[in-house]
Amino acid sequence: MLLKLGQLNVPVINFDSFVREVDADLGDKDRRVATMPPRKKPFSGKAKKQQVRAYYQSLSPTWMANACVVSGRGDLRTIFQKESKAAIDARKRDATRALVYAEDRGNSQSIYAYGIQDPSNQPRILTKPKWSRNMTPEELNGVDDRAFTQWVEYLEQETVSRDDGAQINLYERNLEVWRQLWRVIERSSILVHLADARCPLLHISDQLMTHIRTAFPWKRVVLVLTKTDLVADERVQKWATYLQTRYGQDVPVLAYSREHIDASNAALMRTIGRVSASIEHHESEDSLLLAAEGREQGTLSIGFVGEPNVGKSSLLNSLFDRKLVSVSATPGHTKHLQTHYFERVEMLEREDGDVTRVLMFDCPGVVFPRFSVPVLVQILFGSFPIAQTREPFSAIRFIAENCVPHLHEVYKLKPVEEEDGDWSPYTLCEAYATLRGFRMKGGKLDVHRAANTLLRDTLNGKKVVLSFPPPAAASTAERIAEAPDVETLDHIRKEISVHIDAVIEKLGEVYDQAKDLDATKQYAVELQYMVKCAEAVDLKEEKLDDGY
């Protein structure tokens, strides 16, 4: 039998009052437990990609369109000025032009068409402005900011006033990165300047060398050629001789080999020990403020400086025989000044025992300003990240025109279309994309990915090693300096005369007939240096006549 609710003796419950009573009895913690968690929002794959992209953009070099950038403190991303869209589009249109190989132009050293051997193409670098110990941090920052702004304006004015119309490279525009370099210079007794042995003149800053010698004459500099395993021993030795002549006997030049790492480490530390023995203690405002890291207690401070991707962090890891700092082929991977104590003091081979510990500084890479060095050269030799390249085909052209054997022979490439004639940067990338199966979503060949892969292979020396000997005039200058008599000078003078005539003839051909501006600049530079050699012969002859 069914009973109605009203027939049962059941108390009536007021649920509203019941909920209020229970809620009042629960504490905050219990209430949180009793409360159901909020519903999770879905996180799509697209949103995840955007999150990852934002993270890596925070680590990547930043493009800035304005001329003067003063970064916020603590922001150590490499900052470059943004290239114009017109310049990039012009290089993209040139990607389909047929290659003109270096041997067809009569000179494989096309790198010197950009005047990298000319010190006048290196403008003044940003140095630490004068300061006082009585300044507040805000005043110091203001002094640095004004100096940086004035320096950028100076570089712009230098670019405008040049008669040859040479443009400045993509140099470091982050004040914080320059501050890291200043600190390393101030705190180090010995500066180890590293340079890629494939073309050291692209990485050695004459302005930095001059600044150290003039502002800190008591400090010493050691030049170290890295990545020598990618270059023939004979060429490395020629570079060492050339650089020793260029910078003087007081600047040791060493070759660092990964294949002979123990011998290289021993030679480097032994050289530093010998050089440090001649350093006299000097106190300045900087050293007093920084306390020179306890040099009075027998500490020798060594700073490793140079452009990005020359192997500073790798060298430190090999010295300590463990992974102290992470390394990467991406320029600017080292973000902050890093300090490490080196315990193997005996490697200095100092007999006086004055040095009881060694302090080493790893400085972030700094891209120094240079005129006439295009982006493609910076990409190929590691001072600009390949992943950020907006137009890779001009760099592919440089590789292909200077590569022996030719690039398509190295990678065994075949034209995509049978009617394709001479190779061009674009058709090379098309062929390589076909070989590797690089395609985009719609099935179109991904030539940009193919180009970037070829650039990374070249930077790492995987299949193509893009290295250059010292400038041709260097060996001639050495012969002139070492000439023992007038007869030897007469023989050199005849060689120079024949060389000048040949260069003038080639110069007329490439300018009047081929209209090849790159080759014209190349021969003009070569002619200029041969004329200087002819003048050096006359000076040497006068000295020999005077009995010197």
Protein model, in words:
The protein is of the alpha/beta class and 548 residues long. Among the domains are: 62-82 and 124-167 and 172-362, Rossmann fold; 472-545, Monooxygenase (Up-down Bundle), CATH 1.20.1280. It contains 20 helices and eight strands. It has helices at 15-25, 28-34, 45-59, 85-93, 102-105, 137-161, 175-187, 206-215, 233-247, 261-276, 285-290, 312-320, 375-380, 393-402, 407-410, 425-436, 447-459, 472-482, 486-514, 517-545, and strands at residues 62-64, 79-81, 190-196, 220-226, 253-255, 299-305, 338-342, 357-362. The strands form two sheets. A six-stranded mixed β-sheet has the order 5-4-3-6-8-7, with helices on both faces. Strands 1-2 form a two-stranded parallel ribbon.
